[in-house]
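[agent] plan:
  1. take the single chain provided in the ticket
  2. run structure prediction with default settings
  3. attach structure tokens to the ticket
  4. add a short note for the reviewer (M.T.)
[agent] executing step 1
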Amino acid sequence: MASKQSTMDFLLDQLSGAGEVTARKMFGEFCLYYSGKPVALVCDDQLFVKPTPGGRELVGTGPEEPPYPGAKPYLLISADLWEDRDWLAELIRTTAGQLPEPKPRRRKG
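[agent] step 2 finished; step 3 output follows
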């Protein structure tokens, strides 16, 4: 089941004060980027954040589940936590800060 654009619009609105947050649609789902770094996925209208030590500390004992079959587990952020703009922004910024810089893409041809 694909995620709805309205779910992504809501999340982007909630994260509007976090900094440079963008999204890209991929195969009916979305990838969430912070300053060009992929930090989360929205699959089946659920938010999955890449696990980092800082993110785990903020989430606490929240569940970790794969966003799609065969994927590594991500932090599953329940929809009721999406309402807290400041907490959600801190989670995304903290996660991005602990992830490596993306590798430069090679040009074709």
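[agent] step 4 note for reviewer: The CA atoms of residues 14 and 85 lie 5 Å apart.
[agent] ticket updated
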